[in-house]
Fold this protein.
Amino acid sequence: MAERRLFVCTNQKSGVGEDLAKALKKELKIQGVKSLVVGGQKLHTRIQTCNCLDLCKQCKKGPGAALVVYPEGLVYGNARPKDAERLVQSLATGRPVADLLLDAE
Ligand code: FES
């Protein structure tokens, strides 16, 4: 079974990354998309917390956290728990959440 992983930075003093990771886990269950069939293959999604993703400039300036979606390579910044619903929806639709995307240079 293939895996998709969301790595959520929890290096902020505010604890927003931890809250975002919890909200994403909850939302995966609510939307029933923890496991999806994509292109005939079962895809399981895991939410993982991590330390600094080296995107501090973005996440420390705003009130949210940075996260990376692997293997898609999407990089989001300033994401907050209230964004979990549409971040999870984007996993199912394949359309990124444009206003949270960062340029991963
Ligand atoms: S503190 Fe979030 S990426 Fe560095």
Observations:
- The pocket of FE2/S2 (inorganic) cluster is lined by residues 9, 11-12, 52-56, 59-60, 66 (CB under 6 Å).
- The first helix runs from residue 16 to 31.
- The beta strands are 2-9, 35-38, 41-50, 65-70, 74-79.
- Residues 62 and 78 are 6 Å apart (CA to CA).
